[in-house]
Amino acid sequence: MGGNDPLENWINDCFFLAATDSHTIDSIDENTTKPATEFKRLTGENWLTHSDKLADTFNLLVSAHYQTSPDNLRWILDDPSVSTYLLLDKDQVQSVAIITEEGDLPAALSQEVMQGKRRPRGHLVAQSLLAHEGINNAGQYRYWRISRIATEQTQQNKGLASQLLTYVENSASEGCDFLCTSFAASYDVVSFWLKNGYVPVRLGTAKDKASGCYSLMMVKPITEQASKLAIAWRDSLH
């Protein structure tokens, strides 16, 4: 369809698939006082009173070149394991992180995953560590996986995503054992996660078709026990 196709434009408007400038934030003069940063956590029905933030959030994900589809919108709104964390300034979305809660698998299910008999949906990290790394206790831990993270283009390289990750970590301190992420391992992206205290625990065996990079899974321990495990998992990486 062409750029002015009415049906295409209508679909893009309905599902926030067309990147817009609605959330663009004016550059802040370094000589002026910066406004206070605000954080929000939104899930499910919370979005009903923040519909403007939903449009900005989804547009930001689209502009960040994620393979975003209308189904992702339903995922953000309806999946009870999904939370969206926002960093705002002047009530505008600057940075967004989509978090999925995973793990805490029953022992019997973990055993079946290790044996290749089961692949529970929505438990990427626990499943990978069990099935591919042979870590037999990986299923029992609770993971908050950062499945998407993006910052408005004009505000990048200012530490906003790192600030948002710190907020997520503080929110997760009583609700999980590990923060984690999985991505196509380009140099810049790996450097970002290393800078934020994440350690590698699994390297994929095949290159991603879209990026040409190997996938890398990294974790950041939240508890003292998790810190010891992360070191062991990193050292046994193969």
From TrEMBL:
EC number: 2.3.1.-
Protein name: GNAT family N-acetyltransferase
First-tier enzyme category under EC: transferase
GO molecular function, one term: acyltransferase activity
Domain N-acetyltransferase per the UniProt entry, residue ranges: 58-168
Cross-referenced PANTHER family: N-ACETYLTRANSFERASE 10, RNA CYTIDINE ACETYLTRANSFERASE
Entries under Gene3D superfamilies matching the protein: 3.40.630.30
Record keywords: Acyltransferase, Transferase
